[in-house]
Amino acid sequence: MKWFDYTALTLVIIGAVNWLLIGLFRFDLVAFLFGDLSWLSRIVYTIVGLCGLYLISLYGRIRGMSE
Length: 67
What we know:
This protein is an all-alpha fold. The protein has one domain (2-66). It contains four helices and no strands. The protein has helices spanning 2-25, 29-34, 39-55, 57-66. Helix 1 (2-25) crosses helix 3 (39-55). It starts with a helix and ends with a helix. The model has no long low-confidence stretch (mean pLDDT 91).
């Protein structure tokens, strides 16, 4: 399951960089690459969002490791 954690973390980091670009330059990298709210860009946004929700479980796992 460790590979899934790394994959999810990588996708969330990509999503964070995309939000940084939107915030600083009003440039949406996902929309630029896949089209403005095309079905493919919506899939990318959905996968990144699901990975973010999955990584919430990381808090519990980190706390469990430190105890």
